[in-house]
């Protein structure tokens, strides 16, 4: 039985990288050479994965981009490709699911049995019993939204409750009540480094998935200073569009690899 | 361009029913006659839909049950079947999506273009900019989680903020800030009739999707008293398992129709 948290820690050490490459495939942005291919989404993502794997410690396909194009089968293929060709690099299915227990069981089967993901992102709005069914899949990771990188994230997450903003309550629930099995991690956006620091203070060494550098403009130095653990890891720093669309032509794989390497190195410069 | 809110109001009047039949297909619960059929999920759901349509004003397929079984194509077929054979009964895709704007655009395409749903359920934790992309699909309905029917719903939704529990803040944001286009509705669980009453007081005539009667045990009389609008409508009262698994054998369609009729009538007795 693979264990997400352990695999992640091993990957951080072995690869010397905290970079998580996000896979958000939009066919309208693909280079011309892929146009019209029946499995263009898989071909594009596989090429990006193989080119960036030397610089990454994890991959995060975003399921909406596959579902909008009826490409679930290509997502299955892609995750199988990563496991086969890049063993030891965990795959996070970014799905942000959230539903009552009986439905969450189905989503957990979707993420872990159908897609063979190592971890899945989930939404905490419906509470712990909407998260528990994922934890029953032993060793799998469950990454709970805490402080998201979008501007609207403040609408609810910044509301004060008991003298603290809601996202801090979520961090505390995750760290102190919901993580008996040790499978949890949290999403905290890089667009708010001070909030990463607060969350790190609440959750100890719990891994943080940090989107928002790259296209969303988060500051790498501030992010790393705020989020690293004592051994200089603890973060899955995600970049999607800035890497996968770095090149627009037939050189897109090389362009993605170059930006992935640079991003890894920028992160490592501040660890 | 169909308009969800208008279609729903018309359906309530024309059918004299507030019942929303939830479609949560689990092959392990299907009657033996369907076992082994390649499209058992579609066959089961279509049979339930045709049997219960005389007593319902809407249908709500839950996407997790299709996704866990690689049955997205059967979900497409099912929604097309409802539109073709039961025109005027809106279809709500229960997906509870929630993500940043660029990803929400993809989920909106999935719900409205791929599946041709009339409305979709969404999660408010990431704020208004995670909801806006759905509203750009003119006339489509967007049903925001407010107070969910599960026990764990209280973990966050009951936290006090500004002197009120969080779910009331969500209701107020939805009613006063987020609904300029008139496309919104809210999810409020039947397991909490007092909270339905509070939400109704905040949101005026906004439609409420109310899960939790039937298998989840919510009280029909208390629910209807709390949630009805001045003209005795305003609610999509959902029952899933209590209807679709009412019969276990070849009589499952008749059994579902009977429970659907009884449920409609129990609701109408208190309108």
From TrEMBL, chains A, B:
Keywords: Decarboxylase, Lyase, Pyrimidine biosynthesis. SMART domains: OMPdecase (SM00934). Pathway: Pyrimidine metabolism; UMP biosynthesis via de novo pathway; UMP from orotate: step 2/2. It is an enzyme of class 4 (lyase). SUPFAM superfamilies: Ribulose-phoshate binding barrel. PANTHER family: OROTIDINE 5'-PHOSPHATE DECARBOXYLASE. This is Orotidine 5'-phosphate decarboxylase. It comes from Paraburkholderia sediminicola. The gene is pyrF_2.
């Amino acid at each position: 039985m693979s264990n997400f948290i352990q695999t992640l820690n091993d990957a951080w050490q072995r690869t010397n990288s905290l970079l998580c490459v996000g896979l958000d495939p939009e066919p309208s942005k693909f280079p011309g050479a892929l146009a019209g291919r029946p499995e263009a989404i898989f071909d594009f993502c596989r090429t990006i994965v193989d080119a960036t794997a030397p610089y990454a410690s994890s991959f995060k396909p975003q399921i909406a981009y596959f579902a909008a194009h009826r490409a679930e089968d290509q997502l299955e293929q892609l995750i199988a490709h990563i496991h086969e060709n890049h063993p030891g690099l965990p795959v996070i299915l970014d799905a942000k699911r959230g539903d009552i227990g009986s439905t969450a069981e189905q989503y957990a089967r979707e993420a872990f049995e159908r897609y063979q993901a190592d971890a899945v992102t989930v939404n905490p709005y419906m509470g712990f019993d909407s998260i528990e069914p994922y934890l029953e899949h032993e060793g799998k990771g469950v990454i709970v939204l805490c402080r998201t990188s979008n501007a609207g994230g403040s609408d609810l997450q910044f509301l004060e409750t008991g003298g603290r903003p809601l996202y801090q309550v979520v961090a505390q629930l995750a760290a102190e009540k919901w993580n008996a099995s040790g499978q949890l991690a949290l999403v905290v956006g890089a667009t708010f480094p001070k909030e990463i620091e607060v969350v790190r203070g609440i959750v100890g060494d719990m891994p943080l998935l940090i989107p928002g550098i790259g296209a969303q403009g988060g500051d790498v130095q501030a992010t790393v200073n705020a989020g690293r653990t004592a051994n200089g890891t603890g973060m899955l720093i995600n970049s999607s569009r800035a890497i996968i669309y770095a090149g627009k032509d037939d050189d897109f794989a090389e362009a993605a690899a170059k930006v992935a390497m640079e991003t890894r190195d920028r992160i490592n410069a501040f660890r």
